[in-house]
């Protein structure tokens, strides 16, 4: 299998994994513990970080876009697409700018991405709902993004140790 074909196949597998994690996460009733509408752990971001570090920006954007589109299609919810993609796009933009910075580890990139995701979703809420009320959610969401970003960053760091690039892209 050629390198390009392997990269496309890995991107498709990562998209499926991100979609599955996103769906599984929707089954966790987090609002019972943290009563903020729409709050999630961001487990699909583990896959996005992996794609960014191992496949590059273009492939990571493709995985993110496909996950958001397929997730909205399967859920039958255009509003979900607006919120998911706006948060994901801001997160990806932030992570893309930071991931090559040698002073930041995957933890810092993940935390910044989680914060960016929350900013993107609040921006979408401002547009969709109108008014300034959604801004009240931003401070607690940004505080929680430190925890969720650290969680996804630590899982990503562990994954990076156990899935070295030379094993992913070497000939079979």
UniProtKB/TrEMBL annotation:
Keywords: Membrane, Transmembrane, Transmembrane helix. Gene3D superfamilies: 1.10.1760.20. Coiled coil: none annotated. The keyword Membrane applies. The chain crosses the membrane at residues 34-56, 68-98, 104-129, 141-163. The keyword Chloroplast does not apply. This is Heptaprenyl diphosphate synthase. It comes from Papillibacter cinnamivorans DSM 12816. The lineage of its organism: Bacteria, Bacillati, Bacillota, Clostridia, Eubacteriales.
């Amino acid at each position: 299998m050629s390198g390009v074909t392997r990269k496309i196949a890995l991107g498709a597998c990562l998209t499926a994994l991100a979609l599955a994690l996103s769906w599984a996460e929707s089954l966790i009733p987090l609002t019972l513990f943290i009563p903020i509408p729409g709050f999630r752990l961001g487990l699909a971001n583990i896959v996005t970080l992996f794609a960014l570090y191992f496949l590059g920006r273009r492939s990571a954007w493709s995985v993110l876009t496909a996950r958001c589109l397929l997730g909205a299609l399967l859920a039958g919810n255009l509003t979900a697409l607006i919120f998911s993609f706006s948060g994901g796009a801001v997160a990806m933009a932030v992570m893309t700018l930071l991931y090559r910075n040698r002073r930041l580890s995957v933890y810092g990139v993940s935390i910044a991405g989680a914060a960016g995701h929350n900013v993107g979703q609040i921006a979408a809420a401002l547009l969709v709902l109108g008014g300034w009320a959604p801004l009240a959610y931003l401070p607690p969401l940004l505080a929680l993004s430190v925890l969720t970003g650290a969680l996804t960053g630590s899982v990503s760091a562990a994954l990076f140790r156990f899935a070295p690039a030379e094993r992913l892209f070497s000939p079979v």
